[in-house]
Amino acid sequence: SFCQVWQKAGAQHFSTPSISVPVAAMAEVWKASKPFVTGSLSGCLATCCIQPVDMVKVRIQIGGAEGGSTSPVEVTKKLFREEGITG
């Protein structure tokens, strides 16, 4: 990790203009916050990538039930044309 590399380079403290934190303390903070950070990033990725695909899937299902288009390309084009990128 960044803290281990920093520590191997001989740094004893990580400094910014306003604070100075021991590298070991930063490693502990990262260890504690890593699940939160990775979980947050995976949630963002899922929302940004999976939700639009799911919306197209639902529109295909609705279109099939109502006799409309079931082509993912056509459904996506119609979605962008009528509702824009924000859906």
List keywords for this structure.
87 residues, single chain, two-stranded antiparallel ribbon, rod-shaped, mainly alpha
Task: Describe the fold and architecture.
With about 90 residues, the protein is mainly alpha-helical. The protein has helices at about 1-10, 25-65, 70-85, and strands spanning about 15, 20. It has a two-stranded antiparallel ribbon with strand order 1-2. The chain is rod-shaped and about 65 Å long. It starts with a helix and ends with a helix.
List the strand order in the largest sheet: 1-2
- What would you call the structural class? mainly alpha
Largest sheet: 2 strands, antiparallel
Low-confidence stretches: none
Oligomer classification? single chain
Q: What is the count of β-strands?
A: 2
Mean pLDDT reading = 81
Global Rg: 24 Å
Helix content: over 70%
Provide a count of the helices.
Answer: 3
Order of helices and strands: HEEHH
Which term fits the overall shape?
rod-shaped
Question: Into which percentage range does the β-strand content fall?
Answer: 5-15%
- How far the N terminus sits from the C terminus, by CA atoms, comes to 39 Å
